[in-house]
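Re: that chain you flagged

S.,

Sorry for the slow reply, it's been a week of failed gels. I finally had a moment to sit down with the sequence you sent. For the record, here it is as I used it:
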Amino acid sequence: MWSIDRTWVTSEGPSRWMHRPSLGVCAPNQVDRSTTDPHRGADALDRCAPRNAVDASDVQQGVTRLALVFALVFASCSSPATSTPSASASSRAPQTQAAPPPGEGQAVAIFAGGCFWCMERPFEDLPGVISVLSGYTGGELEGPSYEEVSAGRTGHAEAVRVLYDPSRATYEQLLEVFWHNVDPTQADAQFCDHGTQYRSGIFPIDAEQRRLAEASKARVEQTIPGRIVTEITDAGPFWIAEDYHQDFYRTHPVRYTEYRLGCGRDARLRQIWGDVAGH
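Prediction finished late last night. Pasting the structure tokens below so you have them in one place:
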């Protein structure tokens, strides 16, 4: 039998389209969808529609575009955020906690190398390193959240806090690991992540660390071409990032690998550092 839209219907469902005569010119209060939708021919029964009508295909196109936006967002070093609170809100409470001081016989080093997911493992692989925490440093806001930092308005950088045994690992060794895992010529960004929160930096906790950091930067300036823009700034509070960021390469290995490859991090590191490039 015939359905209302002139489709031949069998027990198995619609069989084929039948020829439809052209409907002519749409009324002044209607929109001609065939001019914007290549899948609607001039003979489509639903070609003319009220100007304020919402079509199911229009909704589907909107959903498709939204899905694409989410895919692009998740390709970066980030996790879903429900909101971006204002950093200046007077009623705001700290969202993260400051790292505790090191224990007896332990030392701390703080580095920023772009996405902190990618900076944990290189240091954890070094003998003498006790632990590595992802977090935020270099900004003014007390206890910032990931959403606040990722908005780029707090002044913080994504960073790692390396707790180590100075009798087994030296600060100079940590500096070598740091340099070989960053692009020190890239300002306010690292690889595919852009913004001051992804800048590279060394945050010495005392005069000796600053001296060693500045000496190592001078050596790097003589080693690779380009202007070295990595900052050296005295360490301030280090705020521990949310639990889901810690050891991300272990807890989310597939997503971590997809991000790292998609960001071009390893390819760029090899281009800069050759055989001593980080991983």
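What I noticed first: The radius of gyration is 28 Å.

Talk soon,
D.
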